[in-house]
Each structure stands twice: as structure tokens, then as C-alpha cells.
């Protein structure tokens, strides 16, 4: 059976997953890239370094996200969300980092599982392992659709 997710089901999916595909546009190209994220109150929060996707989102802040949970080909849920990219600074960035740290803490298997570009390092230096400036951002979602299939 195919169907549409309700608003609360879409919110639950966004709140339970940690990987999305981000679609952005710039320089005549569309770019889709996986991101890790935390979701809170209608916004997706993430971190990255100052690279291609950030350049594109600064130039064209309207973006699209796709998040899914796939158990098998007959049991899945998917949300497509559109929103506006905002680069965060100061207290807003600190809040976002806190959300990201708390969201990913349960997923760490050991003390050595933390990558060199880990969020805890961002809170100290705001630089990643390669010396790039960290970019903390929020995507404020204004439109969502969701679908599911189950047998």
C-alpha cells in the first residue's frame, strides 16, 4: 500500500534520521550531496567546511532535502523538504553545534570512533582537520511532502 505521510509522521522521520541528501543550485549546475543533520522545530541543522555546496547555497539559498528510511523495497518512508539556507554565527551557531553533538553522541561506538573533523573540535577551533573554516548552518523548512509504502 502506498500513501502520504501526515505532518507528524514527516516530523518523526526527520527527527529520527541523521543523513539527508541536499540539493542546491549554482553556476548553472544542480548539486546533490549527502549531509548529516539534526532536526528541531521545523529546521535542519548541519556543519560543513567552506566549499562548493556552501558557495552554491550562499548564492541561491533555496534548497531541497530528501530523507528516507528504507527497511526493504516494500517498507519505506521518504520526505522531500524545501527551505532556505541560513549561515549561523554566535549563539545560534553554538546552539546548532549543541544539537549536532547531542544527536550524534548515541551513534558513536567508542572514544576512537570520533573522526578528526568531529563536532567537539568545531566547538574549540571552528576549523576542520584540513584547516578549512567550519560553516554552521540551518535550513528553515517551509514545505514538505512525504510518502510511504508498506505491505
Helices and strands: which structural class? alpha+beta
CATH superfamily: Electron Transport, Fmn-binding Protein, Chain A
Report the sheet with the most strands, covering strand number, pairing sense and barrel closure. 8 strands, antiparallel
Task: Return the CATH class.
Answer: Mainly Beta
* Number of domain modules: 1
Q: Which sequence of SSEs, written as H and E, runs from N to C?
A: EHEEEEHEEHHE
CATH architecture: Roll
Alpha carbon gap, first and last residue: 6 Å
Tally the beta strands: 8
- Sheet-strand content, in percent, reads over 45%
Helix-residue proportion: 25-40%
How do the helices and strands line up, and which of them pair or pack?
Layout: E1 2-4, H1 7-16, E2 19-26, E3 29-36, E4 38-40, E5 43-49, H2 52-59, E6 62-72, E7 75-87, H3 90-104, H4 119-125, E8 134-149
Antiparallel strand pairs: 1-8, 2-3, 2-6, 4-5, 5-8, 6-7, 7-8
Give a concise summary.
With 151 residues, the protein is an alpha+beta fold. The chain has helices at 7-16, 52-59, 90-104, 119-125; strands at 2-4, 19-26, 29-36, 38-40, 43-49, 62-72, 75-87, 134-149. Strands 1, 2, 3, 4, 5, 6, 7 and 8 form an 8-stranded antiparallel beta sheet that branches.
Spell out the key features of this protein.
single chain, 151 residues, alpha+beta, Pnp Oxidase, Chain A, eight-stranded antiparallel sheet, 4 helices, 26% helix, 46% strand, globular
What does this structure look like?
The chain has 151 residues and is an alpha+beta fold. The protein has one domain: Pnp Oxidase, Chain A, CATH 2.30.110. It has helices at 7-16, 52-59, 90-104, 119-125, and strands spanning 2-4, 19-26, 29-36, 38-40, 43-49, 62-72, 75-87, 134-149. Strands 1, 2, 3, 4, 5, 6, 7 and 8 form an eight-stranded antiparallel sheet that branches.
Amino acid at each position: 500500500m502506498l500513501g502520504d505521510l501526515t505532518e507528524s509522521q514527516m516530523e518523526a522521520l526527520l527527527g529520527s534520521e541523521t543523513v539527508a541528501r541536499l540539493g542546491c543550485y549554482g553556476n548553472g549546475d544542480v548539486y546533490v550531496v549527502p549531509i548529516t543533520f539534526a532536526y528541531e522545530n521545523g529546521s535542519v541543522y548541519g556543519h560543513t567546511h567552506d566549499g562548493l555546496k556552501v558557495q552554491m547555497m550562499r548564492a541561491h539559498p533555496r534548497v531541497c532535502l530528501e530523507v528516507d528510511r528504507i527497511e526493504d523495497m516494500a517498507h519505506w518512508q521518504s520526505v522531500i523538504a524545501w527551505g532556505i539556507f541560513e549561515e549561523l554565527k554566535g549563539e545560534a551557531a553554538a546552539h546548532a553545534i549543541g544539537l549536532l553533538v547531542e544527536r550524534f553522541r548515541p551513534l558513536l561506538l567508542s572514544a576512537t570512533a570520533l573522526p578528526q573533523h568531529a563536532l567537539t573540535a568545531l566547538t574549540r577551533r571552528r576549523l576542520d582537520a584540513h584547516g578549512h573554516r567550519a560553516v554552521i548552518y540551518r535550513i528553515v523548512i517551509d514545505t514538505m511532502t512525504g510518502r510511504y509504502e508498506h505491505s
